[in-house]
Specification:
alpha/beta; five-stranded parallel β-sheet; globular
């Protein structure tokens, strides 16, 4: 009896350099009677919970479906609870194998278990794809997990990196199942969701990701070492959203940067270390399943957070009165992306100035960021909160004023996202409340009216934060 395989797409929306697709092609070549079908599952609650993060992903999914069609590949889409969807798949089509790229985070592991139970007759074949190295590939000599990044990176760097997996879409198209499933209703649900999205993102195609890589690898990577922290500069790769949706793979990026890495280019080396952080936080999440919920450092699991909804809303709505914080939050709210330096600044402010629970910030970023990755985001928030693995010491509290002066010296970034401050003189752009009444009128920016007064005194809050972590707060 002829065998049929399912290629289950998840966070790997691409037709080039896809590990599971490559493995499927090898499987098909072993037996000319074998066939396959491309498949994507949408959890119903994701459709029922619109937010920029979901909007961006589903717009990428719809674009990916069209790209498949251009290659004569039919991507079947089903909406519903995963166990039931896979159970129905087994009833509609005799499926003997499921090829998919593995996701190691706890929630994904539970999802995959439900899929296996729903499609009991099939053999599931997982493949490493989203990261350079799986969580168990970079371990200490005693086979335990690393907790500190630097020694992890030294070991990680020495590991052989996979080359891109080349596939033949034409061959795959020729071996598809004919008219496998009816999914018009499900496709209509996806289309209707995307129609309702507040933002329609451009450049959501696989080719857009490859073009961005070409641009970054060709020139900006040279300046990455020195400009990646400057808020007003386009000094970052801007590849994070493409990595999140799987529009591009880490292998393809590595191959593009290899010539510069071989020349020991500092910018390329620094960027590679940033990609290593993705692997590190994935490993941390696997070894600490409660990463999103519980502080890794036991001593800080009972901190007395303020739980001040008014301050939390001020942070979310870019109304803290600290220009750099508000500009970064505006960038997030308007674009679905935030500069990495901005993520550190705003996270530190929420936790160390407002003394708010880091989980509140992690959840908000999870809704708003188009490149949201649960492991990296939770790891980053625990880093900023001084509660996680290899985190910033609790007594290191970012000054929003000093950060602003260092990384947006002339206030270009601030003025871009906070036009109300566009006429504020450079000497006051980081602390506009220091302007005299006459200077405020001249700048058309009355503090407390056109732009808020600082919600808190940083110097005071810094002392309170340190006391809280020491257990000395009242």
């Amino acid at each position: 009896m002829a065998e049929t395989a399912l290629l289950w797409f998840r966070r790997d929306l691409r037709l080039t350099d896809n590990h599971a697709m490559y493995a499927l092609e090898q499987w098909l070549q072993e037996d000319s009677s074998r066939t396959w079908m491309a498949f994507f599952h949408i959890e119903k609650k994701r459709i029922e919970d619109p937010c920029p993060h979901h909007d961006y992903f589903f717009q990428n999914l719809e674009a990916f479906s069209k790209e498949c069609k251009e290659k004569d590949i039919r991507l079947y889409i089903k909406v519903g609870k995963i166990g039931k969807v896979f159970e129905n798949l087994g009833k509609e089509k005799e499926i003997s194998a499921v090829f998919f790229n593995e996701d190691e985070v706890p929630r994904a592991v539970k999802r995959d278990e439900k899929a296996r139970k729903g499609l009991k007759q099939a053999v599931f074949y997982p493949f490493k794809d989203a990261h350079f190295h799986a969580s168990d590939e970079v371990l200490k000599k005693d086979d335990s997990y690393y907790e500190v990044f630097t020694p992890y990176y030294r070991s990680w760097f020495k590991k052989q990196k996979d080359k891109p997996f080349r596939t033949d879409p034409a061959f795959l198209a020729s071996r598809q199942v004919n008219k496998a499933l009816s999914d018009k209703k499900d496709r209509d649900i996806l289309k209707e969701y995307n129609k309702q999205a507040e933002t329609k993102w451009e450049k959501v195609k696989e080719q857009d990701a490859l073009d961005r890589l070409d641009t970054f690898a060709d020139d900006p990577v040279k300046y990455y070492e020195n400009e990646r922290d400057i808020l007003a500069e386009d000094g970052t790769s801007r590849l994070s959203a493409y990595l999140k949706t799987g529009r591009i793979s880490v292998r393809t990026i590595y191959e593009a940067l290899l010539p510069k890495l071989e020349e020991e280019d500092k910018g390329a080396g620094t960027y590679l270390s940033e990609l290593a952080w993705r692997d590190f936080y994935n490993m941390i999440h696997v070894s600490h399943p409660d990463l999103k919920k519980k502080e890794l450092k036991e001593a800080y699991q009972s901190l007395s957070w303020s739980n001040n909804k008014e301050n939390l809303d001020k942070w979310k709505n870019a109304e803290t009165g600290y220009p750099v914080v508000d500009a970064c939050m505006t960038q997030l709210n308007e674009t679905g992306w935030m500069h990495n330096r901005g993520r550190m600044i705003t996270a530190s402010f929420l936790v160390k100035d407002f003394l708010e629970d880091w989980r509140e910030g992690e959840q908000y970023f999870g809704q708003r960021l188009i490149d949201y990755d649960p492991s990296s985001n939770a790891g980053g928030w625990q880093w900023a909160a001084s509660t996680g693995s290899d985190a910033v010491p609790y007594f290191r509290v970012f000054s929003p004023i000093r950060q602003s002066q260092r990384f947006d010296e002339n206030g270009e970034f601030i003025k871009k996202y906070l036009p109300v401050l566009k006429d504020v003189p450079a000497r006051f752009i980081h602390e506009p409340w220091k302007m005299s009444e006459e200077e405020q009128e001249k700048a058309s920016c009355i503090i407390g009216k056109d732009y808020p007064e600082p919600a808190v005194d940083h110097a005071v809050q810094r002392k309170r934060a340190i006391a809280m972590f020491k257990g000395e707060d009242e």
